[in-house]
Design goal:
This protein is mainly alpha-helical. It is built from four helices and two strands, in the order H-H-H-E-E-H.
Amino acid sequence: MKSLIYPSYIWAYRRQKINTYIRESEDIDLKSSLGDELLMDIRLNPEKYNDLLNGGEYKDKCGYKHTFSGLKTALAYYTYARIVKTMI
């Protein structure tokens, strides 16, 4: 007997839901931290914000080195948290 749905339908649904969670994470979590103006500029000019998006290193005023993961990692974390929250 043939199935009524195919795996591609399920993957398309999951992809759509994941994209929704990504948009929510950007609009709620990142926007509240960065503000509208900076978030819009990052979206329009991502090459200008390479270190902020991908992470890197910097020195503080006292000369100590610090590392940060970047906004892409933060966005992945926020999105994953939304996915897990809906599974419970």
